[in-house]
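Training component of the fellowship. As part of building independent skills, the fellow (R.M.) carried out the full modelling exercise for a liganded target. The chosen ligand was dicarbonimidic diamide. The inputs are recorded below so that the supervisory panel can assess the work.
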Amino acid sequence: MPPVTIEAEPQPIEVGLDKTALIIIDMQRDFLEPGGFGETLGNDVSRLTAAIESCRLVLDAARRHGLLVVHTREGHRPDLSDAPPAKLARGHPSLRIGAKGPMGRILVRGEPGHDIVPALYPAPGEPVIDKPGKGAFYQTELELILRNRGMDNLLVCGVTTEVCVSTTVREANDRGYRCIVLADCCASYFPQFHEVGLAMIKAQGGIFGWVSGSGSVLAALGRPDRGCSLPRPTLRSAAKKMGSKGLHSLQGCWGRRGQLIDRISNSRLLLLGTPLAGPIRFRLGWVGLRWQR
Ligand code: C5J
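Fellow's submitted model of the complex:
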């Protein structure tokens, strides 16, 4: 596969796709879903759920292009023997690791809340790294998997930006990986921490890595070869056939001239050009589609 250039800060980065993995950090129900542990702590989980759709677009594209996709989950053995006492002792006793939470025992493997949100659920064969710490390399087999597959570059998504994403990026950077953190695919309960976390990564010429976004990655990956044409007139009828998600299920499709359907807003498609030129508005029915699944 020829290398691609991804728009990023502090500067664009060229990567070989066969040496690039997508790593999705801790997109777990307890952190993201209303009624989960994160919300019980008083957090506004909508700040995190906002990242799911961008992550899904990148995940779909990564799968279509055959990238290695790795998922991580933060959590512990049911007997908590892998959880340091200092971590277990933190927080109100009813909200500590191992206590009964709204979606099962908090941060315990095998509990419903520990699992990954349905929209980003791992496909068969995609490695899922169960990590006892914040960083995805600490006491896990992640490095072994990446080295054995010859990876040099990591596209990094997930939550939370300043905790598990940042810790993993720092660990990866020290191990020699080039990390490209996708800003809109990461999130924090605290918007200021998200911004500062990203700023710290790209500061000083990219001291820990690069910061980019889903649109830049999708534009760099370009239009995959596969796809089947939808009949025209296309959009509204095609969307109806695609079920209850309607037009939103067209996100991530490609327009007839190679434009990526990025977002749906007020019944209009917002398309990303290639190369990325900012959203362009098209009226419904003006584009013929290729559906990529
Ligand atoms: C993660 C956390 N995944 N914030 N955990 O960032 O405790």
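The panel noted the following from the submitted structure. The pocket of dicarbonimidic diamide is lined by residues 26, 74, 159-160, 163-164 (CB under 6 Å). The chain has a mean pLDDT of 84.
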